[in-house]
Design goal:
The complex is a heterotrimer. The longest helix of chain A has 30 residues. Chain A has 2 domains: 245 residues, Thiamin diphosphate (ThDP)-binding fold, Pyr/PP domains (Rossmann fold); 137 residues, Rossmann fold (3-Layer(aba) Sandwich). Chain A is of the alpha/beta class. The radius of gyration of chain A is 21 Å and the shape is globular. The model of chain B has no long low-confidence stretch (mean pLDDT 92). Chain C is globular and about 40 Å long. In chain C, helix 1 crosses helix 6, helix 4 runs antiparallel to helix 7 and helix 5 runs antiparallel to helix 6. The chains are: A alpha/beta, B alpha+beta, C alpha/beta. Chains A and C meet through strand 1, strand 8 and helix 10 of A and helix 1 and strand 2 of C. Strand 8 of chain A pairs antiparallel with strand 2 of chain C, so a sheet runs across the interface.
Chain lengths: 402, 104, 182
C-alpha cells in the first residue's frame, strides 16, 4: 500500500483503475470531471488497458456502458447531478438487464437554480432505479467502496449495478491521505469479471433486452427484488473480505458512541463532522449517538432498528428532500422503526442543500431541537436548518398580494 | 402456468422467435401469380420478416416461353410468418403479387 | 489540529498552494486536508482555500471559520476582504507585501511579511503584472509556522507543481530565507 495525498476524484479514479475495467464510457461534468480526465490520461500513457468511449451526453455514456456490459465487459463510468438525471431511463435498463456496472457520482445539487455544489438530491432522485447506492465519507472510502461495489455487483447472487457517491467539492476536490492498495492485492480481491448471464459469444447466441409482456414482466421485477435482498448479505461478506485483505473495516451501517437517548443518522461526508460533534457533546454529558449509513440501497432496516434500540429521539440529518413528504433517508428510517417496533420519536433535519456548509453549529441545533422533542416541548417533524425562512415567506407573500 | 424466467430477461434459446407465428396478424394476403413472376427475387430482398422463401425452380410454373427464368429459384410466401404488409406487392416490378383479403 | 485559510486571486495558485501544503505535511507524518471554497471565480476574482493539518485523523468536513493562520497571496485583497475574519487570538498572519506592520495596521496577531511577488518574478513564475506566488508564500509559511519542514515542502513542490518545478522550489527556498517575522 502507498499513502498518497489525493483529491476525492483522483481517489475514485484510482478505485476504477485498480478494478481494471475493460470499458469506460463517460461524459464529463462538474464536479466529477477529474475522474474521466485522469482515467483518460492513464489510458493515453499506457498505464491502463481500457477502452475509453467519449460520448456526446450522459444518456449516451450510460447507454454505451450498458452495451459494453452486455458483452461481458467490466465497465466504469462517472457523473453527477444533471448528468445522472439525464441517465435516468438507462439506469432502469442497466438494472433490469442485471448488468454489474459501477459508477462514481460526485454528489451535486440539481437545477434550478443552477448549482454545482454538494447535496444528495441527484442520487436520491435515482433511488428507485434498482441500483445499489453507497455513500462515501472520505476519499479513502470513495476508492474502497468502488472495489467493494464491483465485488458485490458481479457476484452471481446479485448481478446489479452500483453507484458510489462522493460529496461534491467536500470530497471531490479535497486533498487528503489515501492508502492506495497494490494492484496485485486488488487482483486477488477482485478477479476478472466472469459473466454468467450477459455476454457476447458467437458459440452461444442469446437475446438481451427483449419485450417483457404482462405475463412475464413482474417476474423479472421480483427477481430484482430478490437480488437486492440477497445483496444485503453479499455486501457484508464483501466488506468483511475487504477488511481481511486491506485492513480497513467497512459495514453498511456504522454506529458511533452507541447507547444515547438521541441518535443522529447521517450519510456522506457530514458523518465525520457528526462524530466530532458527538464526541464533544458526550464530553459535556449529552446522551447522543451517531449512525452512519454507508449502504442506502439496499437499506438495512432490521440492522438499523437494532442500532436504534433504546433511543428516544432519532434525528435524521440529510442533504436531500422529497417535496410533499419527508426526506428520503427519514422515510427508510421511519419504516425501520415501525417495522421493528422502535418507539422513539423521529425528527428530520434538512441541511446542506446546494453546498451550504454543514457545521458543528448545525449539529448543535439538531441536538437542542431533539432535546426539546424529548421533553415534549416541540413536535417532531421536518426542520430546515440554517435557512432564511422569513425572507422566503416574505417573497412568496409579495406574489400572493400581486 | 410454468414461466420461462431468466436473469435479466436474457433469452438463451436462439431462434425462439420462430415460435411466435406472426401470420395471424395478417388481414391482406399476398398471392403470387407465377405466370407473371420473372423470379428477380426483389420481393425476397424487401420482405422485412423474411417470409418469402427461395425454393426449387421446378416447384412452381414459370412464364411461358422463358426457359432462362425457369432455371432460377422460384419464390414462395411463408404464410406462417407473413404479416401481410404488402411491401412485396409494392416492390414487384411486374405486378406479379396481388394483395387479396384474408379469409380464415 | 492546525487550520489555515489562504486568500488569493484566481490565477495566483492559492488552491494549488493549499494542496501542495497538504502534501508536504503528509511527508512529515501529519494527516492533512486541503480544499477550495470552489465558487464561480475567474482569473482575478478573490478566492479562498483551506488546509488542516493534524497529528491524528481529520474527521471534520466543514469550512474553517476560526483559522490558526491566514495567508494572503495578494496585498490588494486587504482592502477587498476581511482577511482577519475569525482568526484566532494570537493567530498567524502572513502577507505577500513590502509594507511594514505599522503601514498594514494589523496588530494583536503574529505577523510575517514577504515580497513573494518579487521572488516569483525573479524565478520567471507568472508575469510582473500577475506573478504566481503560491510556492514562494509556502516557503515563507513553513518558516513562519514551524510545523512542516522546508525539505518536505520542496519535495512536494518538485513532485506536484504543475509546471516549472525547479523554479518553484527555488522560489520557496528563497522566500524561506527572506520572510520577515515581526
Amino acid at each position: 500500500m502507498v499513502v498518497m495525498t489525493l483529491e476525492g476524484n483522483e481517489a475514485a479514479a484510482w478505485g476504477a483503475r485498480l478494478a481494471r475495467p475493460d470499458v469506460i464510457a463517460a461524459y464529463p461534468i462538474t464536479p466529477s470531471t477529474h475522474i474521466p480526465e485522469r482515467l483518460s490520461e492513464w489510458i493515453a500513457d499506457g498505464i491502463m488497458d481500457s477502452e475509453m468511449i467519449l460520448t456526446e451526453s450522459e444518456h449516451s455514456a450510460l447507454s454505451a456502458c450498458v452495451g459494453a456490459s452486455a458483452t461481458g465487459a467490466r465497465v466504469f463510468t462517472a457523473t453527477a447531478s444533471q448528468g445522472l438525471a439525464l441517465m435516468h431511463e438507462i439506469l432502469h435498463i442497466a438494472s433490469g438487464m442485471r448488468l454489474p456496472i459501477v459508477m462514481a457520482i460526485g454528489n451535486r445539487a440539481l437545477s434550478a437554480p443552477i448549482n454545482i455544489w454538494c447535496d444528495h438530491q441527484d442520487m436520491m432522485s435515482q433511488r428507485d432505479t434498482g441500483w445499489m447506492q453507497f455513500f462515501a465519507e472520505s476519499n479513502q472510502e470513495a476508492l474502497d467502496l468502488i472495489l467493494i461495489a464491483y465485488k458485490v455487483a458481479e457476484d452471481r447472487r446479485v448481478l446489479l449495478p452500483a453507484m458510489v457517491g462522493l460529496d461534491a467539492f467536500t470530497l471531490t476536490h479535497t486533498f487528503e491521505q489515501v492508502d492506495v492498495p497494490e494492484q496485485e492485492e486488488v487482483d486477488r480481491y477482485l478477479p476478472k469479471y466472469r459473466p454468467v448471464h450477459a455476454f457476447l459469444d458467437p458459440e452461444r447466441p442469446i437475446t438481451q433486452g427483449p419485450l417483457g409482456t404482462p405475463q412475464h414482466y413482474m417476474e423479472f421485477k421480483y427477481a430484482q427484488y430478490e437480488a437486492m435482498n440477497r445483496a444485503k448479505g453479499v455486501i457484508v461478506e464483501a466488506m468483511e473480505e475487504f477488511g481481511r485483505a486491506f485492513g480497513r473495516e467497512y459495514a453498511p451501517l456504522v454506529p458511533f458512541s452507541p447507547g444515547g437517548e438521541i441518535v443522529l443518522v447521517t450519510m456522506g461526508s457530514m458523518s465525520g463532522t457528526a462524530r466530532v460533534f458527538v464526541r464533544g457533546a458526550r464530553q459535556e454529558g449529552e446522551s447522543v449517538s451517531h449512525v452512519k449509513v454507508v449502504a442506502f440501497r439496499p437499506f438495512y432496516h432490521s440492522k438499523l432498528a437494532e442500532l436504534l434500540a433504546g433511543a428516544k429521539v432519532v434525528a435524521v440529518v440529510e442533504r436531500a428532500f422529497s417535496y410533499g413528504s419527508v426526506g428520503p433517508l427519514a422515510q427508510d428510517v421511519a419504516y425501520a422503526m415501525h417495522r421493528y417496533g422502535i418507539k422513539a420519536k423521529l425528527a428530520n433535519f434538512i441541511v446542506g442543500l446546494g453546498g451550504r456548509d454543514v457545521t458543528l453549529r448545525d449539529f448543535s441545533e439538531v441536538l437542542e431541537t431533539s432535546k426539546r422533542i424529548l421533553k415534549g416541548e416541540e413536535d417532531p417533524g421536518v426542520f430546515w436548518l440554517n435557512v432564511a425562512k422569513e425572507e422566503v415567506l416574505k417573497a412568496e407573500e409579495v406574489i400572493w398580494n400581486a | 402456468m410454468v414461466k420461462k424466467v431468466t436473469v435479466g430477461a436474457v433469452v438463451p434459446w436462439p431462434g425462439s422467435t420462430a415460435e411466435n407465428k406472426t401470420g395471424s396478424w395478417r388481414t391482406l394476403k399476398p398471392v403470387i401469380h407465377y405466370e407473371k413472376c420473372i423470379r428477380c427475387a426483389i420481393c425476397w430482398m424487401y420482405c422485412p420478416e423474411p417470409a418469402i422463401l427461395k425454393v426449387d425452380p421446378d416447384k412452381y410454373p414459370a412464364p411461358e416461353g422463358k426457359p432462362a427464368i425457369a432455371k432460377l429459384p422460384a419464390v414462395e410466401i411463408d404464410y406462417d410468418y407473413c404479416k401481410g404488409c404488402g411491401i412485396c406487392a409494392e416492390e414487384c416490378p411486374v405486378n406479379a403479387i396481388e394483395m387479396v383479403e384474408e379469409v380464415k | 489540529m492546525f487550520e489555515i485559510r489562504f486568500h488569493g486571486r484566481g490565477g495566483q495558485g492559492a488552491v494549488t498552494g493549499a494542496n501542495i501544503f497538504a502534501i508536504a505535511a503528509s511527508y512529515d507524518g501529519y494527516k492533512s486536508q486541503a480544499f477550495p471554497f470552489f465558487g464561480v471565480e475567474r482569473r482575478g476574482a478573490p478566492v479562498t482555500a483551506y488546509a488542516r493539518i493534524s497529528e491524528g485523523p481529520i474527521e471534520i468536513r466543514s469550512f474553517i471559520y476560526n483559522p490558526d493562520a491566514v495567508v494572503v497571496l495578494d496585498p490588494s485583497l486587504l482592502d477587498a476582504v476581511n482577511v482577519l475574519e475569525g482568526l484566532k487570538e494570537n493567530g498567524y498572519v502572513l502577507i505577500n507585501t513590502t509594507k511594514k506592520p505599522d503601514e498594514l495596521g494589523i496588530s494583536g496577531y503574529r505577523l510575517a511579511t514577504v515580497d513573494a511577488s518579487a521572488i516569483a518574478v525573479r524565478h520567471g513564475l507568472g508575469t510582473p503584472q500577475a506573478p504566481i506566488v503560491n510556492t514562494a508564500i509556502l516557503g515563507a509559511l513553513v518558516r513562519f509556522v514551524d510545523m512542516v519542514k522546508l525539505e518536505s515542502l520542496l519535495r512536494a513542490i518538485r513532485e506536484h507543481a504543475p509546471a516549472k518545478k525547479e523554479e518553484n522550489a527555488k522560489a520557496a527556498e528563497e522566500a524561506y530565507g527572506e520572510v520577515r517575522i515581526w
